[in-house]
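During the second half of the funding period, the structural biology subgroup turned its attention to how the target accommodates small molecules. The most pressing case was magnesium ion, which had performed well in the primary screen but for which no bound structure existed. We therefore specified the complex as follows and requested a full 3D prediction, including the ligand pose.
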Amino acid sequence: MRASAYHISTLKEAPNDAEIASHQLMMRAGMIRKLAGGIYNYMPLGLRVIRKIEKIIREEMDAAGALELLMPVVQPAELWMESGRWEQYGPELLRMKDRHGRDFVLQPTSEEVITDIARNEIQSWRHLPVNFYHIQTKFRDERRPRFGVMRGREFTMKDAYSFDRDVEGAQKSYQIMFDAYMRIFERLGLTFRAVAADTGSIGGSQSHEFQVIADIGEDLIVYDPNSDYAANIELAPAPCLIPERAAPGVSMQTVATPDATKCELVAELLKLPLSQTVKSIVLATEQEGQPATIWLLLLRGDHELNEIKVGKVPGLNKGFRFATEAEIVEHFGCKPGYLGPVGTRLPVRVIADLTVANMHDFVCGANQEGAHLTGVNWVRDLPEASLVTDLRNVVEGDRAPNGTGTLAIQRGIEVGHVFYLGTKYSEALKATFLDENGKPALMEMGCYGIGVTRIVGAAIEQNHDAKGIVWPRAIAPFEVAICAVGWGKSEAVREASEKLYAELKGRGIDVILDDRDQRPGIMFAEWELIGPPVRITVGERGLNEGVVEVLGRKQTEAARVSLADCVTQTL
Ligand code: ATP
Ligand code: MG
Ligand code: MG
Ligand code: MG
């Protein structure tokens, strides 16, 4: 590629709505251009990166035995009605009508369509297992699209769906995908963590997220640095647990109990010392292994978070998820972002036997004692940077789930998510096959997503400096930029640059030759912003001594090397 024939369009300043480094740098480097809120044009430079990410994903999915197909973006509403998600999904699902008044959706995910394919295509146990995937445009009408491609409304996802004869087979398929995801994120050059996660609106019972570690991440991860334990505290959009189904006979009405009471109640149940006023409470699920566990985080202190405690309520079963903000407002009558009165000390009530049944009562509304539990969204009320530090300091040395080790908290960006679905969709859509005895049986399913376009933002969050992007080589738009200084004036520069360019290209290196005859300062600043891992400067002065300058994007001093050496150095 020659820069003179390419579209390089950098900006000095990022637009005002770009709040975080990756969004600012993607705009400034000319990778994306905004079309509407959460909807972006991927410009040639941005698309190069997206294609490189897709290539790595494809290679690993194919190697794991998954089969690529392509399902439509527009899907008929009937399938969503069959699965029940036409009602359940809420305003994130973009719905539309065709000219005949028939309902359609713009797909946010493809469980319904793939299950429809499976029920039509798979008749016998001999056709199983099978795993289909596609890399396709998704649309989710996010309540708060922000951070550029990180939380877009239109975005690209790789989604895969496995079908198996039995639970054992499905677990194997899940593990194969889990392992493939580990390889994918390693190859992408990202620092990440696989964490136990909530299953959200997709449903199912076992799930892991792949979180890229970054301070601007919307998720909080609790982990033990010395063991495999890691889980998502799912604080976004609003940290509150309610059961997926209300327990029979439980009313969803709010009893006006201040949060302090609820927190003290939980503290008592968990046998935690309560020396200070409890400020807030956050609840999260951990679904690895049986039975599922609910984690209760008690945050104490009057105006600052100065202590965090983690408690465990054993013996609870599945069926919990985080409520959306709308649900919290509806069920508990509180304002979005509501914080209970701080500094109120109220008598502690003791509930003798905490069982699955009365826990249901707590989390979904009033129990007979007139108390209820909710989480509150404290994140929004604190400056984000201080929150990260505070939590890190606070948890240092605390015990983790099994009573050993130390607990730590990090922020993460969810870039991948694997679910074991069981028969949720095959049952709803009647996707059966004939087993070895000729009897119809439901297919066991799993689904596996990767946020392709979100990865671009996440990678930049982890890899940038004051000057611009510092690409991991595997996904850099170009691996090497040759900066020809004095292109217009010097025959020697032109000749040496062309030779170098041809040689690097010949060796399969993704190289761009900057032949635009720009002033060196401008040219260097532009390539520092765009961020290829290696820059080679060819100038007349160096050539007189038989050398060019090679500068790694992470280095500050260029190395003067001979033309021949510079090729081997950049390989
Ligand atoms: P989030 O919690 O960030 O809203 P999600 O849990 O709703 O994500 P999934 O349904 O698990 O997302 O979808 C699989 C992957 O798609 C996610 O892991 C993420 O990488 C990506 N993704 C989801 N929503 C968006 C979005 N609005 N913009 C870009 N990528 C997204
Ligand atoms: Mg979401
Ligand atoms: Mg999520
Ligand atoms: Mg998810």
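Two results from this model are relevant to the next phase. Confidence is low (pLDDT under 50) at residues 235-396. The CA atoms of residues 449 and 473 lie 24 Å apart.
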